[in-house]
Design goal:
It comes from Klenkia soli. Pfam families: CMD. InterPro entries: AhpD-like, CMD-like. GO terms for molecular function: peroxiredoxin activity. The protein folds into two domains: about 45 residues, no CATH class; about 110 residues, Up-down Bundle (AhpD-like). It starts with about 25 loop residues before the first helix and ends in a 13-residue tail after the last helix. The relative contact order is 0.19. It contains nine helices and no strands. By secondary structure, it is mainly alpha-helical.
Length: about 190
């Protein structure tokens, strides 16, 4: 695959719906958040316009209105993609992580089950929280205390919603077998 961001020719489990005129404004808002084009994910969400609209607002807020540092946000998203084997999510966020200052070595390390040596303390804490929230759901008090000591209440809320939100994204993508945009899928 190439890294040009074009959709793969493989098909998802559901066809893309026809967008009713009454729902065109929702599709336009989604496309605007994406820089003018709908992704395969967006198109599939339009089977339920109210869900698509809410999804767009939530994910737009996480990506563009969060106080969480961009590198931490993208590390959490990419780690969720790895843990849930969500190739679409991985491809869609790999370049965003690079733009946020995440190195290629760090991106590659996200496939390690113990990537700690490649990251600073705050990044490692985000990855530990992401792994724990993904595998165990419940966050132990000791881990939460460490997170609380490093992050503001707003950052904690945004981090937890990012982890949970992108778990939702990955589950949607994987269950519907949405192929990734063309690009490197990763090493796992």
């Amino acid at each position: 695959m190439s890294a040009h961001g074009h959709e793969s020719t493989a098909a998802a489990r559901l066809p893309f719906p026809e967008v009713a005129a009454a729902d065109a404004a929702i599709a336009e808002r989604m496309a605007a958040r994406r820089g003018g084009e709908l992704s395969a994910l967006d198109k599939l969400l339009l089977h339920s316009p109210p869900v698509a609209d809410g999804w767009n607002e939530l994910l737009g807020a996480l990506r563009h209105k969060s106080s969480l540092a961009a590198d931490l946000r993208e590390l959490a998203i990419l780690r969720v993609a790895v843990l849930n084997n969500a190739a679409f999510e991985w491809v869609a966020h790999k370049e965003a992580a690079r733009r946020a200052g995440v190195t290629d070595a760090q991106i590659d390390a996200l496939y390690d089950m113990d990537p700690a040596q490649h990251f600073d303390y705050r990044q490692n804490l985000v990855l530990e929280l992401t792994d724990t929230a993904t595998f165990e759901i419940a966050v132990p008090d000791l881990l939460f205390q460490r997170v609380r000591a490093e992050f503001s209440e707003r950052e904690i809320v945004e981090l937890m919603v990012t982890i949970g939100g992108y778990a939702m994204v990955s589950r949607f993508l994987v269950a519907l077998q949405v192929p990734p945009p063309e690009g490197e899928v990763g090493s796992s």
